[in-house]
Amino acid sequence: MRFSQREKSGGGWVLVALVIVAFLLTTLYYREGEAGPLRQVRSVVHGVTAPVGRAGAFLTSPVRAVGGWLSGVTVSRAELEALEDQNATLRQRIVELEEARLENERLRELVGFVEAREFDAVGARIIARPVNVWEAVVTIDAGTADGIEPEMPVLTAHGLLGKVTEVSERSSRVRLITDQQSGVAAMLQSSRAEGVVTGSIDGELSMEFVSREATVTVGDAVLSSGLGGVYPRGLFIGEVAQVQQAEADLHPAIRVRSNVRLASIEEVLVLIGVVGEVEGGGGE
Fold first, then answer.
1. Which of 50, 146, 219, 276 ranks highest by number of CB atoms within 10 Å?
2. Does this model's pTM top 0.85?
């Protein structure tokens, strides 16, 4: 115990002596001239240690550079949230632009078809689709205020869709050609053989009353014939998908495949002031 006290006492005197020496050296350093001994010693020490300092700085420069880069890429939480919000906004904008581009492509197809036939037409959107399998009817967002009347044909870029059956000021109901109550006077493009395309409860199309002597080929285009006074001549209905004819049948059984996919249709065109060639015959 006594030894420890003496050791502590001796350490205290050493500290006091060092403080006194440092004070004296500092006083002499500031009082001596530029050629004083202390300043000369300082210059010698600086000359010896300078190369060592430069070497250390060179060796540690990559580490300091990486540290500086890391400090530059670090962002605060607020900045990160702002970047995430901006990214979400940009993604939403990209989706909107893509939707506009797809809509423009669909509308160009419709307008191109109408311009090629020199029809007057009104564009509309489908706002309601069939609610059951018994009635193939859609609702569009155009009506009497747009010049639409009952019996007007309705088209898509891929073919005939149906005709207007009911009209209000701002909307109309369109009965599809696939409806079991529909019928379209039609003809085969290659042979010009005529018949009637009818719908069914399952949405399938068939062409009836075609002469058994007519040449019917799978893949042949089926067009509206213009008879019946509703659909103008030459509207694309579909293609022959299947032909069957038994010896006792008066007419071949022809199944027609429409290129119109209702689930993907959003825009339609209603033909204004179009009247088919009324020359008798079946169909609407």
1. 276
2. no
Task: With beta carbons less than 8 A apart as the criterion, state whether 53 and 43 touch.
Answer: no
The domains of the chain are located at 2-72, 79-118, 121-272
In order of 73, 74, 82, 111, the CA distances from 85 in angstroms are 19, 18, 5, 39
How many beta carbons lie within 10 A of that of residue 12, not counting itself? 10
- 196: which 2 tokens? 């009637």
Say what the pLDDT of residue 249 is.
84
Residue 151 neighbours by CB distance under 10 Å: 14
Q: Look-up: residue for tokens 């702002």?
A: 82
Query: Which of helix, strand or coil describes residue 22?
Result: helix
Is-contact 283 230, C-beta < 8 A?
yes
The owner of tokens 């193939």 is: 136
Fold annotation for 121-272: Thrombin, subunit H (2.40.10)
- Max mean pLDDT range (118-127, 190-199, 244-253, 271-280): 190-199
Q: Are 257 and 239 in contact, with CB atoms under 8 Å apart?
A: yes
Query: Measuring CA to CA, how many Å separate 33 from each of 36, 42, 47, 121, 213?
Result: 5, 13, 20, 104, 130
Residue 40, helix vs strand vs coil: helix
Distance from C-alpha of 179 to C-alpha of 201, rounded to nearest angstrom: 7
Please measure the distance between the N-terminal and C-terminal CA atoms of the chain and give it in whole angstroms: 123
